[in-house]
Write a structure and sequence with these properties.
9 helices, about 45% helix, seven-stranded parallel beta sheet, 7 strands, globular, Rossmann fold
Length: about 250
Amino acid sequence: MQITAFERGLHDRVAIVTGAAVGNGRAFCERLVQEGARLVIADVIDATDLAEALRAQGGTVVSVQADLLKPADAQRVADVAMEAFGRIDILVHNVGYYHEEPFDLLNFDEWEQTINLTLHTLFHTIKVVLPHMKAAGFGRIISFSSDTVWLGSPYLTHYVTAKMGVIGLTRSLASEVGKYGITVNSISVGLTATQSARDGGVSSTMLEHILPTQAVHRADEPEDIANVVAFLALPASGIITGQTINVDGGVAKH
């Protein structure tokens, strides 16, 4: 039986997806469109091609080129969403930075860049969407951590610190905003679920190294994470908040 738009779980909900132009973010957008959501795509690079592809699939989409390290750009994303759709229901924040370096060789610039791109962009984006969610009495804030926080992976002190910060923000903010009908959750993912790892950008032997450690012996795909994103965005997940769900094929048993 074909599912109509009116039967989809996110029909007429409005989602902002950041870092959406490539990789995992693209999969998140596709999955949310399948659920009937209207999308605002925000990325520092031009996401016009993705927006056009999603419209061809029947999606209602606008795109914004924005640097979310800048509070004014984050505000512009929220303004575009309100102008286009009149509401903001869901934030899927997918901005981050991965870089391996032994701590002895790690310089402050790399440390700062990792913290800024992971946490400051999350802060700026939540700040501009939260008032709209509070006013509506509904909201879903979804961000991304890493299974390295459970594993204590070496050469990633800066990255693990930033990603653990995502979990801390998730837990504390969830306690504040639950009374407004807003949930705050994060998803910790493995390196095999990122486009850069799959394409050899992190390490050409990354898949060979990680796959044997997984309980499920196949590479994680962006669609695996997208399914969890969609679940956390649905009204049916409204009792789940302040949580970090690990999606890495069972490398980390969190």
